[in-house]
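User: Fold both of these, please.

Assistant: Here is the first one.
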Amino acid sequence: MTKKQDKSSSSDIDLRQRAEDIASRIDDAQQENIGVLSALEVQQIVYDLRVHKIQLEMQNEELRTAQSNIEISQARYFELYNMSPVGYCTLNETGIIQEANLTIATMLDIPRNQLVRKSFSRFVFKADKDNFYLKTKKLLVNQQTMSCDLRMLTSNKGTLWVHLTSTSRKKADGTVELHLGVSNITEQRLIQQQQRIAAIAFESLDGMLITDAEGLILQANRAFMTMSGYSDEEIVGQTQDLFNSGRHTSSFFVEMKTQLKQQGKWSGEIWARRKNSEVYPIWMTVNEVRNNEDDVSHYVYTIRDITAKKVAEEQILNLAFYDPLTKLPNRRLMLDRLEHALSSRARHKRLGAVMMIDLDNFKTLNDSLGHDVGDQLLISVASRLESCMREGDTVSRIGGDEFVVIIEDLYETILVERQVEAVAKKFIFHLNEPYFLQQSVSRDSQSKIEYHCSCSVGIALFSEDTTTVDELIKQADTAMYAAKADGRNTLRFFAPEMQTLMVARIKMENDLHEAIKKEQFVLYYQPIVTCKNKLIGVEALIRWLHPKRGVIMPGDFIPIAEASGIILPIGLWVIQNACDQLVKWACVPEMAELSMAVNVSVMQFHQTDFVSQVLTELKRSGANPLRLNLELTESVLIYDMNDVIDKMITLKASGIRFSLDDFGTGYSSLSYLKRLPLDRLKIDQSFVQEINSDQDDAAIAKMIIALSQNLGVEVSAEGIENHAQLDYLEDLGCHVYQGYLFSRPLSLQKFESFAQQV
């Protein structure tokens, strides 16, 4: 109490005492009816009363001011309490909420009146309640500050992470109340989680770099250091110029920076340099990072070494356009170059020639000395042919022992035959020189043998009258057969009168027409099995039961049928009979699940009504389309890829499956293969025969299996004749097979017996 307050209180007491005395005296005087106060005394009392009144009014004003200040302070407290960024609430000993500020109510999206008088644990996530109980119990016992992270429930049954801080206070009545501070840390927890994920991602298999806005490297992960050969100390503080291969122009990097500035990201293939100076291809993605002011603060580089991918692509490209044995252009590339030569001839009025070269008696060499010796010969022949070629001309191997040479830019019409004849004679001369081939005598020793080989050459000239590539190839092929008919080891130019030399072929064509009418064809069935020797399907193979010549194999008549167009009715007959047989097998439990593969020729597939033919036969027969597998050869892909894809998609929509037969022997392009809706790739038997001893065959088989896995299709192998081949293919990941090891092609009756036994 202040001195002023002490003095005022004392004056009040004196004044009251005096007033009480006067009042008593007045009462006594009234009783005695006598006057007791003088005028001076009355005047003094009135003055004192007036002063006291003023004092009372001043005290009242001070009280009102104090009350107002208290109300203002209280309002400020409640405003701070409610608007605090931290949620506050007060609990009693039993955990019942006594008070809660607006922040925690907003945080939980629950009105305060629904929080107060409720148990706080009611709003704690079930999995975190035990932790909350233990922490609270410890607080009540130890009277120490408690903190923990837990999840709380919101009005919509969602959860949010909070940091809880609690203190306790003992009240005057002896009870304890708890004061809780609740901070929403959901976003902070999410950021921490993202940082942990980012840290794991940063140490991914891909190389990663982080630079500042100026391009200085701040951090590199282990994958990039392994990839580049640099240590962390050598990288940090450098720019990406450290890895510049020198293969890109300055304009390349200007375009990269422009796109990065416009789009905030860039990705593409680029050449980089390792610490050991090796240049290697990478796929690089750059993303900018912006700060709160929307300024670029960092760049994040993701880098993948694509060396293996580029090697695989190059290998598959070679497989697509080059013969794997001789490294010469294959049929696909030859046809492409011949088409180009014909176009150039039309534009520049120049002449040219196509030569079909076939080695004489090559099959005898292969059968007697083995395929490895035959391969040596083919490689040597290819080398000799290349050595005789002019720059700009093409020599290709189109299969087996057949080579095609394209000669362009011949000017003199009168002398053109002499020019081409001189080149052909040069080929014959060099190919007649002896070959020294290695023959295996035993496992550890080889002997060198001298071999002499001749060739037959057919020549077709192309001039302004030449119309198509097919026409030229047919003419050269006809002339080559004429050369063989004339004793081999010679050359022949195509001439119209050569048609008389094709009597045998024409006779066979006539017989084929007769065979269709009299139904002389029959289907044989070669089993298709899995690695567990489970029969899953068959390949339908046609045989010709000739009334005079007996059983004729498809290799002896299919080429003539294809050349003459007779393959179309034959192909339709095969599909019809395959469908009918599938319907019959559907009623036999042991065979109901078998699929049937049917070979489709190029000419047959490219018919405009091929799709409707197949669908019509399926509908007519009632065969299950899921059991029909159409096998296409790579030559189908040469013409009108879009038409091929459209037909395949339409047929697949009905359930039909597709296989690519003899894969690796002709035209294979990744860009086309990945567009084809294939179900299976078939490894050609030519790669299977020597797969255990020929590294090239093994490499091709591995590549085809890897390619099938990347494309998400099945892979099968044909021509398996022994367990060594089977085991090798199984180890590579090929699990579907056919070949003599399991069964030769069988007649219907024998196959059904075989299926029953299996």
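And the second sequence with its predicted structure:
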Amino acid sequence: MDYFIGVDTGGTFTDVVIMDDEGHFCFDKAFSTPKDPARGVIAALENCAKLIQPKANMNNVLSQTRRFCHGTTVSTNALIQRKGARVGLIMTKGFEDTLIITRGPMGRSLGISPAEAMDFIHTERAVPLVPKSLIRGVSERVDVDGEVILPLNEEDALKMARELVDSGVESIAVCLLWSFRNNSHERRIKELISSIAPNIEVSLSSEISPLIREFERTSTTVLNAYLGPVMVRYINNLKGELTKHGLTRPVQLMKCSGGLTPPQYIEREAMATLNSGPVGGVIASKYLAKTMGYQNVVTTDMGGTSFDVGVIYQGEVEEESTPFVAHGIPLQVPTVKVVAIGAGGGSIAWTDGRRLMVGPQSAGADPGPSCYDQGGTRPTVTDALLVLGLLDPENFFGGRKRLNRAKAEAAIQDKVAAPLGLTFMEAAAGIYEIVTAKMADLIRKVTVGSGYDPRQFVIFAYGGASPAHCALYGEALGAKEVIVPDTASVFSALGTVFSDIKYTYARSELCPLEPDPSITDRVNRVFQEMEENALADMVASGFPAGETLLLRKIDLRYDGQLNELIVPWEGKRLTPEAMRDLRQHFDQAYEMKFGQGMSRAESPLEIVSLRVEALKLTEKPKVLPEEEGPEDPGPARTGARKVYLKKGEPMLATVYQFDRMVPGNVIVGPAIIERRDTTIFVPLGHEAKMDGLRHIKIRTGGQK
């Protein structure tokens, strides 16, 4: 028996999915261990392996594993907590302050919430990842056409490298002007650094981000240098632990682009692992939506610390070319677009004496919600769910974690109810209502703000906490249907298993989109060079060139604009005829994003960058549906309990055990479906049905 394993390390839990080659799977989780994430991975694997069969153990499973895929928050946590490597930076002389000055308002107002961005008095520029004392400017200059107009002063470069090494840097970033046109100076600096410090990691902007825009390119290169040593240490530690327990296959790492990368490339793609965890859920949604016949999906992931929303439109995920991964820190890497707010199960409820607030602060895994009885005293969303009757204190985490209702009531009473003159039950209902409304509002902004009508979408609700809220935020949006996948609580881990090996390449080549032979030849030549590099990297990674799928994309904008759109292009060569098709695709994409009639047929187009994606389609386990049985869920009924919501008196909700349900069962709300890893709430006026894949499909109040 061969196995496929997906692991996702979150802020509160580490999730594992194990699937065999016949389509059977099991899943479980363990508490994350931020100080040593590998321990959380091993614990989750041990828990999950026990579910395969009574005598199975983790070593046996790992020794028979065909693919091991991993999404991790190690890089994200290192950035948030500013615990990355000590980095030195070498720039072109005269441009040493690029990271400090940033570009326009970017360093001050982007990468933070709108409320913080508008608070000009208290919002300052972000502190750079590299202090000014570790930045050096070297004499050299390359012009916009790649011509050397000032040779590299190698003596100065070597001196600066020695100074940085002597100051204790763990890695060095090199970002010279127009190096993506001619990278000879950057490559030479790397050789000089290696000659005196061969163990120092060096990130070159011409390799990491060969794109126009000096600040964004520098930021991305510095991010890679900052996170590279952290990720290398973590992956080496994890590989060592897994190898001791029998794993012989490499650990494939999830990237924010929605693809996987082998561990040997982590030094040059460390920055691409940022925010890769939530992306796994979007990829799993895309895969399952295709098998279920859905084209338009809103993905919603509520975990312990955040609520993440993504969009799949006409079967394709929405992307952004330069997301901000932290305050004032852009990442020049195409990323699956996931918008997040601080609204998770561990989000803390608080008051300023007049209003009830929820989040963005989180209690995390340690100390966690007050009901965990681990020393936490501040009320959270999980505490509210327990008090309202949505959670069973004896059945949380499959009974492995008993919740303390008295501690939850006390925290809500002391910190929220008493200051606002409410009962603890009214306060708990207010917490639930506010966090659910915040989630509905975010979905509305993400969909309507991009020109989509949420009524034309189904909602996938996953993560450990989403199923308790999804029917209500789905109803608020008028969504067609809300679907809680069978693997909802470990959905991002499942997404890593369904992901493909993906390398991305890009190069800025500014030129007008005109039928000029010099332009078409130049574009075709660059595409050919990038595709040759892509195939070479695939072969070096052990994947045959003949099994590699190459996809082309072009960044285009109207002449005179500052921002561009990425347009897929399926052509083999750019010709005058292909330009007309490209123009049509761009106009359609422009109107989709900015509104019908907003395209400008009279305005010339400009090519900004060329991109190539190299895909190696991975072997994926089968997903086999079961035959549907009776509608009556009677055998799964275990009792009933009171649930209190703000809109009325307590209601009596029927409780069902998920594991006892069979495909075809229909449940009418108010009801609670309990699982060992999550709780699904079916409100009054809603109906839920289990399909052949054991997904729960909830018809909201307005969609009967």
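The chain has five domains: 3-78+236-255+265-273, 83-232, 276-343+457-496, 501-616, 634-699.
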